[in-house]
Write a structure and sequence with these properties.
globular; 3-stranded antiparallel β-sheet; mainly alpha
């Protein structure tokens, strides 16, 4: 390992790195437990999903290390190109993407499949950080808010046409980054109203989205509410300490695709309220470390990058758990580090590498080390 890389790694936020590794390992263990039945039935290999996720996780950890070793300002220079690439890839999905369950979200690259919406999240974080830092106007003006949000509309429209949940996450990232850079609060009421209207238009644009609202209110009346009901059964049957790792009954075909969006319900069944609470605590600690890194960054760009990553992680965790507990309608959002999905874990670990780069290349070392 080069001497400079060792120096930068030693300056990185070790607590955050440890939390990321804990979540990644925990995710692999839980994924194997959750997916072994489906893997055995569908592919004759109980470790089918685990092996694919293990490969993606190892690849993601390598990317995280590589990204953390590079000054994050280098990636800011690539932000406009990355944003343009995300638009092109999202357009390609609409034209050439693989359709699954009525939605086009994947591009096939030979034997591998790629979900451009995951790349779009990272591109938006970098692009907005670059744009806000370079603005020559005051960031407390209403025009600044509108101009910044307008730049998101192309990617939000493209992604939202087939993946409303990811479009909501991208909008949320944009709002939070503007909030971080804007000292005023009242303007966000108008921005929130515009955002709510935008979401309402997307909900009404497709009949299946309105159907999801009906299923959410009365899941027992609809055949598609079966997954929600079974997920709630899993949560309730777990009790305080759970049935034990690997002992879930609902993963045996009762919760469809248990290794994906509904994996939190299986965690509740096998590890109980205690296990679920520990997982939520780990996510909370990771968000705290991201906040600390952002607070002690030496420049606005570093703070915005960490703020965007924190927004992405927080929104996705909250929405996934809310869906599983039927607090909000089903939106098809995965649980970071835990749910099955190679593209998701690779880009998420890449984001963690960006945050580690900020902690090692752009922080106020004296203030940070006294924390």
């Amino acid at each position: 390992m080069p001497r400079e890389d060792k120096k930068n790694l030693s300056k990185a936020d070790i607590t955050m790195l440890a939390l990321v590794l804990i979540l990644a390992v925990f995710g692999l263990i839980v994924l194997y437990s959750t997916s072994e039945y489906n893997g055995r039935v569908r592919f004759g290999d109980s470790a089918y999903y685990f092996k694919k996720q293990l490969f993606a996780t190892v690849l993601g950890l390598g990317i995280m290390y590589a990204v953390s070793s590079i000054d994050y300002h280098f990636f800011l220079k690539l932000a406009p190109a990355a944003y343009l690439m995300s638009i092109l890839l999202s357009t390609a999905v609409l034209l050439f993407g693989q359709e699954i369950n009525g939605s086009k979200r994947w591009l096939n690259l030979g034997p591998l499949s790629f979900q451009p919406s995951e790349f779009a999240k990272v591109a938006v974080i970098l692009f907005l950080s670059w744009q806000i830092e370079r603005t020559e106007q005051k960031t407390d003006s209403f025009w600044f808010m509108c101009r910044t949000m307008l730049t998101l509309l192309p990617i939000v429209g493209l992604v939202g046409s087939n993946n409303l949940s990811t479009a909501v996450i991208i909008l949320g990232i944009g709002v939070i980054l503007i909030f971080v850079s804007n000292p005023r609060y009242m303007q966000f009421i108008g921005l929130g109203a515009v955002g709510a209207g935008f979401v309402a238009v997307f909900l009404a644009a497709e009949s299946y989205r309105m159907e999801r609202l009906a299923i959410w209110k009365n899941p027992e009346k609809y055949e598609k509410g079966f997954q929600t009901i079974q997920g709630l059964y899993a949560i309730g049957s777990g009790g305080i300490f759970g049935r034990g790792l690997g002992s879930s009954l609902q993963k045996l075909g009762f919760v469809p695709e248990a290794q994906n969006d509904m994996i939190f319900s299986i965690i509740c069944e096998e590890l109980g309220f205690v296990g679920a609470s520990v997982l939520i605590l780990a996510f909370g600690l990771l968000l705290w470390r991201l906040c600390v890194i952002a607070t002690h960054s030496s420049d606005l760009a570093g703070a915005l990058i960490c703020g965007g990553i924190m927004a992405h992680l927080a929104i996705q965790v909250i929405l996934n758990i809310a869906v599983v507990t039927n607090t909000i309608p089903n939106t098809g959002i995965t649980l970071p580090f835990i749910s099955y999905g190679g593209t998701s874990v690779v880009f998420l670990l890449g984001e963690m590498g960006l945050a580690l780069s900020v902690s090692s290349h752009g922080r106020n070392s004296y203030a940070y080390n006294r924390r």
